[in-house]
Write a structure and sequence with these properties.
Elements lengths: L1 E4 L7 H8 L4 E4 L13 H11 L1 E5 L5 H11 L6 E3 L10 H15 L8 E3 L7
Parallel strand pairs: 1-2, 1-3, 3-4, 4-5
Helix pairs in contact: 1-4
Length: 126
């Protein structure tokens, strides 16, 4: 699975994912496509992810959910979104995020992630 980590997630999480789950190809928004997408709108970001078949990993529970509802109503596809909640996991905890993501990706397996929305759980709660 290819994932894109949004800017609120620690950049070190990319390396932690490479160690915990080498089958996940992770990019961080700060470095993805040489960085210009950092200022992109949510819609532009989801569109770009969809172009690459990349699942967005985000802690944005404020704006992304309403955009996903809008897209669903319009019949517009995305490549999947995985939400984190800072009450459950801290975006500044690379090892814990990597473990949670590895568990979720193993659970999803080879399934198509088009329009899939999932939530990370603490690795000890999985």
């Amino acid at each position: 699975m290819k994932v894109l980590l949004e800017t609120h997630i620690a950049k070190a999480t990319v390396g932690a994912i490479a160690k915990a789950a080498p089958d996940i190809e992770a990019q961080h928004l700060a470095r993805w496509r040489d960085g210009p997408m950092r200022s992109a709108s949510d819609a532009e970001l989801l569109t770009a992810c969809h172009e690459e078949g990349r699942v967005l990993v985000t802690f944005d529970l404020r704006t992304i959910p309403s955009l996903l509802r809008q897209w669903a109503a319009e019949g517009r596809n995305h490549s999947g979104v995985i939400f984190g909640d800072d009450k459950t996991l801290k975006p500044s905890s690379p090892a814990m995020l990597a473990a949670a993501l590895a568990t979720l990706v193993a659970e999803i397996g080879e399934a198509d992630t088009t329009n899939v929305i999932r939530f990370l759980t603490r690795p000890d709660q999985a």
